[in-house]
Each structure stands twice: as C-alpha cells, then as structure tokens.
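Consider this today:
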Amino acid sequence: MNLLIWGLATGIAFGFLLQKGRVLRYDKQLGALRLRDMTIVKFMFSTVLVGMVGIYLLHDLGLISLKLKATVLGGNIVGGLIFGVGWGLVGYCPGTSLGAIGEGRVDAFWGILGMLFGAAVYAEVYPQLKASVLTWGDFGKITLPQLLGVNHWLVVGVMIVLALVMFRWFEKKGL
C-alpha cells in the first residue's frame, strides 16, 4: 500500500511538472513534431536522465533489482511508428493526453480512445506478433553499459554531458 501512495504522489508531481513545463500545450506538441520547439524534448530527456540516476543509485544501494525486458528491434520500430502516427494525428502523446484531460481539454479524449483501441487490437493480434514482429532483432535483456562493457555511471555521465551540450545548442538556436 505504501508503494501505491508513493506512485500516486510521484504521478501527481509529474503531472504538475508537465503542466508547469507547458508540455501539455498543443502548440508545444506541434513544435516538437516539426522540430521547431524542443521544450518537450528537453523535458523528456531531463526526465530520462533523472530516472537513470535514480534507478542506478537505488540499484547500487541494493534497494531495487533491475528487471530488464528484452531489446527487440522489430517491436520497437513498429511500435515507434504507430506511436508517432498517433501523436501526429492527435497532437498528444499518452502522458500529455492524460494531462490535457486533467486540464479540461476534451480534444485529448480522442487520443485516449485511440490508445485503448490500440491496446485492444494489440491484445488480439499478440499471438501472431509474438511469432513474427516480436522476434525480429531480439538482442535479449541487455543494457547500454553491458553492451559497451563499461560501468553504468560512465554511461550516465556521458548522457548528462550530451544533454547539457544539446540543451545549450537548443537555447542558442532558440529552440
């Protein structure tokens, strides 16, 4: 029960930050899709970096164990294409559509219906996908540090430096 409360609290905090970061706005979504406004890219990359530091720190302290999913290129590529088409059509990704509903924007409702429909279709065709698309490029349960044969903190550090350089470049370009 305690974990559910933490999950709810962090979910509310994340939703608050989504709203305050203005990434729920349609113009920001469109700007990201057109590569003219990197607000969402900066927000999500920051989120990934915080997650990387938090997960590896908790893992190193022995408080959690990593539960990796297999890296399957077929599923990632096909899923990414479907995700991108949906985002382009609706103007919201899954997280921002829920946040937009929270702000009272009814247009995001169609995105949520699309996600539910897509999940139902996926559940129906999963047996066929498991024998085909979900076997293409199966690299097993690997991480980037394992693939490179280096300590995970080296990868985290490089990612942070890359993020800082990228953020600075975006700011110089007015993105």
About this structure: The chain has a mean pLDDT of 90. The CA atoms of residues 29 and 91 lie 6 Å apart. The chain is about 70% helix and 0% strand.
